[in-house]
Design brief:
The complex is a heterodimer of chains A (419) and B (507).
Chain A: H1 16-19, H2 33-36, E1 50-59, E2 65-66, H3 68-76, E3 86-91, E4 101-107, H4 110-123, E5 124-131, E6 145-153, H5 155-160, H6 166-180, E7 184-188, E8 193-198, H7 202-209, E9 215-216, E10 218-226, E11 239-241, E12 244-250, H8 255-264, H9 275-288, H10 293-300, H11 305-309, H12 313-325, E13 335-341, E14 344-349, E15 358-362, E16 365-369, H13 372-376, E17 384-386, E18 394-397, H14 405-418
Antiparallel strand pairs in A: 1-10, 1-16, 2-9, 3-8, 3-10, 4-6, 4-7, 5-6, 11-12, 12-13, 13-14, 14-18, 15-16, 15-17
Chain B: E1 10-14, H1 24-28, E2 34-37, E3 42-45, H2 55-59, E4 65-69, H3 82-94, E5 99-100, E6 115-117, E7 138-140, E8 149-151, E9 157-159, E10 167-169, E11 173-175, H4 185-198, E12 202-203, E13 220-224, H5 233-238, E14 241-245, E15 256-258, H6 265-271, E16 279-281, H7 291-304, E17 311-316, H8 321-330, E18 335-339, E19 348-349, H9 350-355, H10 360-373, E20 381-385, H11 391-400, E21 404-407, H12 409-414, H13 437-440, H14 445-469, E22 485-487, H15 492-498, E23 501-502
Parallel strand pairs in B: 11-21, 12-13, 13-14, 14-17, 17-18, 18-20, 20-21, 22-23
Antiparallel strand pairs in B: 1-4, 2-3, 5-19, 6-22, 7-10, 8-9, 15-16
Classes of the chains: A alpha+beta (419), B alpha/beta (507).
């Protein structure tokens, strides 16, 4: 199914040139105004290739654990980042609000917040909203306005749009806010999950957001090493779309065609980073086309023709068709990526493994990281450790419903009250 | 003054001290530029007859011959150039339409020369195609929007869709349509052998399929043109795909004419017309006057081949090419071939070749963009044609959005052609565009095929090198990836139509 563009205003379908937003004049007056007030979201106009560290930990039984482990894991890979971006995705952190869509938002200014909220109120009931709590630290310095919302789609809106599912509606909202509302940015938009990110080393970002106090059953994290000095809070990883999050180490050489392919299906690339095509491809292939994750891995990181030739006849037919039909969804260029949604964590390399990725299992835990040391830091003697081969996905699957409000509910409840 | 003598285009220089009067040149030149005088026992040359094909120069045993532009000067005039004057003079003599061969030779902008490719540095590694796999395999045909996969109880994944048939190319290069009649059977043989050995396709043009070439059907695209020459059920089923020819880049909007002198017994049998009769292809198909008629023909051909073969439509690149291509895709074509301004021909009115149509670069960009806007890009492949000179042009065409390209002129050059533009005379000294048995035997099809394979191999290697340089190891990741291209010296409007950024602008 296509995402209808009616709701998200005029879709940008002209040339690539006009699709890239040129920096407009600052809302604070002249360009000079920028010198006096720092901007956190404006630098989104540049697409920046980067190099990075990634780490992910999942408990397949759905047991929630504190952010402490993932922080130690990513902190160990300090040197793979350069302080220009760090972030975390956490699943299972809002169990009491699990039936509402949790929106983490960044704003550069109060006006943007009002504009975004005005838009959101048209389509959603805001069950609860509050600032995302943080602790001012020397290392992070200034930050944009950080706000979170728990939203329930208005039934009457959904019914007025033919065949619009809740997910489609959320997708449209995220796309609209990120591409049309200046100085507002949706960081994450899934249920019972949230993304915390900013400009800084990941361990400092974790301290800033006090992530050791959250508990979740699935965590991913990222330390960023962008190749130029432009850095903006929204540009840090993970990227979020619905309950998907992606952390990515690499550069996507096929970005141009991946993006045009996704535009065919109504996705609008709004983040100005190559990473977002990964998240949309996961969304398209799994949610829209209903393709199992093992096969999605084979679409994004396709086996070579030489290998396909050697497969048994029926399998060969499947893979030949995959490469024919999903040629434009192949992600080319070096990458190591950890994608996650509410019940899955997938680690994947490019087809010739040009970026490091290690995986391990220990009991119910699945670990994926750029370096083995980052796993052993938090799990010194895993049951098994392996280097996934190029294009071989590592998949962690949730076996049960995430445990339980009883365990961590009191803590979470306190948070709502405090803020 | 009934006839004004023309100043010759070329000057044939013969070094007297080298020439041994062996008369090889006399036997070589089908235009009779060289003459042997038995009385003086000397060979002499009438430069006015020289077409500049360089055949005698290439094979003179003592290298005594040199062909030069005639240096005879007249007053400079940007408007009244020498070729303009000659055209007027010829027409005043004859009252006829000026004819020519090969593609447009006028200096219209060549956009390929204003487009540059990207390469990897630091943040993504380039890939060495000599050490790592590098894939050029290309599928031509209709693809569904998505695959329906089913997991069986043994946890095996199987396919629920049936995909329509495809052409599989080992490299995104095919040989353009050139008919038996316009080119010799030996040239057709060379193309067929090369296509089947390399793993690509050649195209029969509108000349039908000679009996000897049926064994290469797996690598043949059979064409159905407005004259319907040689079209019958066996012919349609002999090829791997069918192409309905609506237009040709060198002569958009007009038909074709093979003079009766060229229609010998073999051609008469192949085209199913009487020996010695003119083979005239009408300008339109007289059963296709609209897009709905085209749809009927597409499906008639699909029915005739039991839906086992892709059916495509070839059009010339004209102003409204994007909308026309969209209509063709919606009419059910599995691929659209687009032939640009510089596309070649065996014979066309000079005025049409030089003045009608648009460059293929802009046509590819416009068509690819429009098909994507309409969400039907996957429903048909786009094959571009029209003056592709090297692998750089081809890779840029793929990045603009073409699935593959047709090469015609380049293939002929590989077999000896020097683009003298006299194909329509039937006197091709290189044995390509002729039916004269004395001339056609000059092209050994085995050697011709070998040279074509060499060309495909060389260009494929170069494409792999350039892909690897960009850090890409499968051509589909470049296809339509206009981020890989930057324009230099182009206007904003050109850049907008091409959908590329100017050089110097980052992502």
């Amino acid at each position: 199914m296509r995402i209808d563009t009616k709701m998200i205003g005029h879709a940008k379908t002209e040339s690539l040139n006009s699709a890239i937003r040129k920096p407009e004049s600052s809302p604070f007056g002249s360009e000079k105004g920028r010198l006096y007030r720092k901007k956190y979201l404006a630098d989104r106009d540049y697409r920046i290739p980067g190099n990075c560290a990634v780490s992910g930990i999942m408990n397949e039984a759905g047991k929630c654990f504190s952010g402490d482990a993932i922080i130690r894991s990513i902190a160990l890979m300090h040197d793979r980042a350069n302080g220009m971006g760090g972030g975390f995705a956490a699943y299972g952190i809002y169990p009491e609000m699990a039936k509402y869509y949790a929106f983490h938002m960044m704003y550069d200014e109060e006006d943007a917040k009002q504009n975004a909220e005005h838009y959101i109120r048209r389509y959603y009931t805001i069950i609860h909203d509050s600032p995302i709590r943080f602790k001012k630290t020397q290392k992070i310095g200034d930050n944009p306005l950080l706000w979170k919302y728990f939203l329930e789609p208005k039934k009457e809106v959904m019914h007025s749009q033919v065949l619009l599912s809740e997910e489609d509606m959320i997708a449209q909202t995220v796309t609209y806010v990120n591409s049309q509302i200046r100085n507002a940015f949706v960081v994450s938009s899934g249920k019972n999950m949230g993304i915390f990110k900013g400009v800084g080393y990941p361990e400092d970002i974790a301290e800033f957001y006090r992530l050791d106090q959250y508990k979740g059953y699935l965590w991913t994290s990222h330390g960023r090493f962008p190749t130029n000095s432009v850095a903006w809070w929204g540009g840090a990883h993970p990227f979020g779309f619905l309950d998907w999050s992606v952390v990515h180490n690499g550069e996507i050489s096929s970005y141009g065609i991946n993006r045009r392919y996704l535009e065919n299906f109504g996705y609008r690339c709004a983040f100005f980073t190559d990473t977002e095509v990964i998240i949309y491809l996961f969304d398209l292939l799994s949610r829209m086309h209903g393709i199992p994750f093992e096969i999605i891995a084979k679409i994004l990181s396709a086996p070579f023709w030489n290998d396909i030739e050697r497969m048994p006849e029926d399998e060969k037919r499947v893979y030949e068709s995959i490469r024919m039909v999903y040629a434009s969804a192949l992600i080319n260029g070096p990458f190591a990526v950890i994608a996650a949604n509410s019940d899955t964590m997938i680690g994947l390399n490019d087809r010739v493994k040009l970026r490091p990725l290690v995986a391990a299992r220990h009991g119910d835990f699945v670990y994926i990281a750029s370096e083995e040391s980052a796993i052993r830091e938090v799990c010194p003697r895993p049951d098994s450790v392996w280097m996934p081969r190029a294009g071989e996905p590592v998949i962690g699957r949730l076996k049960k419903e995430p445990l339980s409000e009883v365990q961590i509910g009191s803590h979470m409840k306190k948070e709502y009250e405090v803020m | 003054m009934a006839k004004v003598p023309l100043i010759s285009d070329f000057l044939v220089e013969r070094e007297k001290e080298k020439c041994i009067n062996c008369q090889v040149c006399c036997r070589m030149c089908a235009f009779d530029a060289h003459r042997y005088d038995p009385e003086t026992a000397q060979v002499s040359t009438d430069s006015s007859k020289c077409v500049g094909c360089h055949f005698c120069e290439s094979f003179c045993p003592t290298t005594a011959l040199t062909i030069k532009r005639n240096p005879s000067d007249s007053r400079e005039n940007a408007n009244w150039r020498q070729d303009v004057l000659k055209g007027i003079t010829k027409q005043a003599d004859t009252g006829g339409v000026l004819l020519t061969g090969m593609g447009c030779d006028r200096p219209y902008p060549i956009y390929w020369d204003h487009i540059l490719l990207n390469a990897s540095q630091v943040t993504n590694p380039s890939i060495d195609p000599l050490r790592e796999p590098m894939e050029l395999r290309t599928y031509i045909g209709r693809k569904p929007d998505c695959l329906r996969l089913e997991r069986s109880n043994k946890n095996k994944i199987s396919l629920k869709n049936t995909l329509s048939s495809q052409l599989v190319l080992e490299s995104p290069i095919l040989f353009s349509a050139m008919s038996y009649g316009s080119i010799s059977l030996n040239t057709c043989r060379s193309l067929a052998w090369a296509a089947s050995e390399f793993g690509t396709f050649y195209n029969t043009g509108e000349g039908g399929l000679h009996r000897d070439l049926y064994p290469y059907g797996k690598n043949t695209i059979v064409q159905v043109a407005s004259g319907r020459f040689g079209v019958h059920a066996e012919y349609l089923n002999a090829g791997a795909a069918i192409e309905i020819k609506i237009g040709q880049g060198a002569k958009p909007g007009i038909g074709g004419h093979l003079p009766g002198e060229k229609v010998d017994l073999e051609i008469s049998r192949t085209r199913m017309i009487p020996e010695g009769s003119d083979a005239i292809s009408p300008a339109p198909h007289h059963d296709i006057y609209s897009i709905e008629d085209l749809r009927q023909i597409i499906y008639a051909l699909k029915e005739a081949t039991k839906y086992r073969k892709p059916v495509g439509v070839k059009i010339s690149a004209v102003h409204n090419v994007a909308a026309i291509a969209t209509g063709i895709v919606r009419a059910g074509a599995d691929f659209v071939s687009i032939d640009g301004l510089r596309g070649g021909t065996g014979a066309a009115p000079t005025i049409i070749r030089n003045n009608v149509g648009i460059p293929i670069e802009l046509a590819i960009a416009a068509v690819d963009t429009r098909l994507r806007e309409e969400g039907i890009r996957n429903q048909a492949s786009v094959i571009a044609a029209g003056g592709f000179r090297n692998s750089g042009d081809i890779i840029k065409a793929v990045a603009l959005g073409a699935d593959a390209v047709y090469i015609g002129t380049a293939a002929l050059v590989a077999m000896g052609c020097h683009i003298c533009q006299k194909c329509y005379t039937g006197k091709c000294n290189w044995g390509i565009a002729t039916q004269d048995p004395y001339l056609t035997k000059r092209l050994n099809p085995k050697i011709g095929a070998r040279r074509l394979i060499n060309l495909l191999r060389a260009w494929s290697l170069e494409i792999k090198e350039m892909l690897g340089g960009m850090g890409i190891n499968a051509i589909e990741s470049l296809r339509g990836n206009r981020e890989a291209l930057r324009g230099v010296g182009l206007s904003d409007v050109d850049l907008k139509i091409l959908g590329i950024k100017p050089a110097g602008e980052a992502w």
